[in-house]
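We read letters as residues; the fold follows as tokens. Both lines appear below.
***
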Amino acid sequence: MENALRYSSDEPFWMNYQQIKVDMADVFIFIGVWVDKIVYWVMSQKEVRKNKYYSPQHRGGIEYQIGITHKNISEFDIYRVEPQYLGEMVLKKGKKK
């Protein structure tokens, strides 16, 4: 049985955000939940499309996925937003279309 992890854990993890339909929104909020912390990443449609971890999910090519793991999480630090600034950042990134 797997256990939930603390944010500071050295254990491997993989958060796979699936069924992303990038044309359906201007801004995406990805949420990571640990037993002691919730992390929010805000990415514009363009940032999602250009992310090197963005890949097709099915052969149809309309749904995509992004995986955040213990190995690449630091690469998402530039998208990290504290909860009190979520609305502001969504509006800011939404205007940059």
